[in-house]
Specification:
single chain, alpha/beta, TIM Barrel
Length: 309
């Protein structure tokens, strides 16, 4: 029986060199955490930091709740990571619910704590679907925030990029133009919102180049173990969860170990395809759970400092 074209394709795919064999580990990685709400969560976060530290991340970042609701915990977490873990830590800072004077105070306290890197974001109102309303004495958007931070101290600044367009943007090009203004205002790099198709990022990268953006744009990777939670995140940021991903996680609600294996496989393949397209830096949204990010880095050839792959 003569094999079909589809069978031949599958045979070639299955017998080619394994996807992850021989990767040299020539990637830079960074990790995002959120500040803990309890002693138990603080212990979990600290365990995550300690597990990922040997991978020598370029930096780790700590999020900032809507309306500054986690300001103190973000500050405490970042300070501890710098002083005890001896890792370069970036603090998130948003425009929401704060005057320029308040943001100056927060930024100055970060600088005094040894923070030299800020992830500058407009931020969201906190309620799903609620429009962003600038503080009457605050910054109107992330462009103004970046300019304001640069006047306070010589921070390294990262900003957000949206491969599938921010929900508040008028159009994709308008969103890219806004990103360019943030970078031109003094930001060092952009970190992308998560996405699940490598082609999405490659198309975005091409459009950025056409608009004259040459600063690094690091893809943000979200290993998904909870599809419902990921869908909620995606709805807030304009990302699309493909139908095939729903199918992969179907029937695994009560099987957390299997969900983790599936999540690691899906995210690792995405990273491998990005790597094949020339990407050499990855930012992982860890949700304070280090195992998946560690496994994916390992598959990309990234080993603890001093270890050979």
């Amino acid at each position: 029986m003569t094999p079909s074209l589809e069978q031949l394709h599958e045979h070639r795919t299955a017998t080619d060199t394994p996807l992850f064999s021989g990767l040299p580990g020539d990637v830079a990685v960074s990790f995002e955490f959120f500040p803990p709400k309890s002693e138990k969560m603080e212990a979990q976060l600290w365990d995550a930091v300690q597990q990922l530290k040997p991978l020598d991340p370029s930096f780790v970042s700590v999020t900032y709740g809507a309306g500054g609701s986690t300001r103190e915990r973000t500050h405490a977490t970042v300070s501890r990571i710098i002083s005890e873990a001896r890792l370069p830590a970036a603090a998130h800072l948003t425009c929401v619910g704060a005057s320029k004077a308040e943001i100056r105070e927060v930024a100055e306290s970060y600088w005094e704590a040894g923070v030299r890197h800020i992830v500058a974001l407009r931020g969201d109102a906190g309620e799903p679907g609620a429009p962003f309303t600038p503080h009457p004495e605050g910054f109107a958007n992330a462009v103004e925030l970046v300019k304001g931070l640069k006047e306070i101290a010589d921070f390294e600044i990262s900003v957000a990029a949206y491969p599938e367009t921010h929900p508040d943007a008028d159009c994709p090009q308008g969103d890219i133009d806004h990103l360019k203004r943030k970078l031109d205002a003094g930001a060092t790099r952009a970190i992308s919102q998560f996405f699940f198709s490598p082609e999405t990022f490659f198309r975005f990268r091409d459009e950025l180049a056409k608009s004259g953006i040459d600063q690094p744009v690091v893809p943000g990777i979200l290993p998904v173990t909870n599809v419902a939670q990921a869908r909620k995140f995606a709805g807030a940021c304009g990302a699309e969860i493909p139908a095939w991903m729903d199918g992969l996680f179907e029937g695994l609600d009560e099987k957390p170990a299997a969900r983790q294996l599936v999540a690691a496989t899906v995210a690792a393949e995405l990273c491998r395809r990005l790597y094949a397209g020339g990407v050499r830096a990855f930012h992982f949204y860890t949700l304070n759970r280090p195992e998946l990010a560690y496994a994916i880095c390992h598959m990309l050839g990234k080993r603890p400092s001093g270890e050979r792959s």
